[in-house]
Write a structure and sequence with these properties.
This protein is about 60% helix and about 10% strand. By secondary structure, it is mainly alpha-helical. It has a single domain, classed as Arc Repressor Mutant, subunit A, CATH 1.10.10. The chain has a three-stranded antiparallel sheet with strand order 1-3-2. The two termini are about 30 Å apart. This is Helix-turn-helix transcriptional regulator. InterPro entries: HTH_HxlR (IPR002577), WH-like_DNA-bd_sf (IPR036388), WH_DNA-bd_sf (IPR036390). Pfam families: HxlR (PF01638).
């Protein structure tokens, strides 16, 4: 219920929707936010990421990392060692999602509890 607040204008709603759709377009898919969150903790090699992020194939991981790099969320640094080492790291831009990810995590926890409660009542 809205009290003492005016409804947003059509233009405000349209702009807000456009912004959300733009964000979802860039962060779409099952893995992008998980990979950003994972790489915020520390830089990792490809094999470390694949071992720790369960359920992602090498092909999908490579595609998602490339997309994240193209959109400025991660950097890919190649070290000319033998064998070549490639390290992936979250950028400062990726860290700008920290509050969004925190809110999304809290909402996910709340939703999971709501579903559990709903199942207990239905059982």
């Amino acid at each position: 219920m809205i009290v003492n607040n005016s409804l947003p204008s059509h233009a405000e709603c349209s702009n807000s929707l456009k912004n959300v759709l733009d964000a979802l377009y860039v962060l779409n898919g099952k893995w992008k936010l998980a990979l950003i969150l994972y790489l915020m903790r520390s830089p990792k090699r490809f094999n470390e990421i694949q071992a720790d992020v369960t359920g992602i194939s090498a092909k999908i991981l490579a595609k998602e990392l490339k997309d994240l790099e193209l959109n400025g969320f991660i950097t890919r640094t190649v070290y000319s060692t033998t064998p070549v080492s490639i390290i992936y790291e979250a950028t400062d831009y990726a860290h700008s999602l920290k509050s969004v990810l925190g809110e999304l995590s809290a909402w996910g926890e709340h939703h999971r509890e709501k579903i559990k409660e709903s199942m207990r009542r239905g059982a």
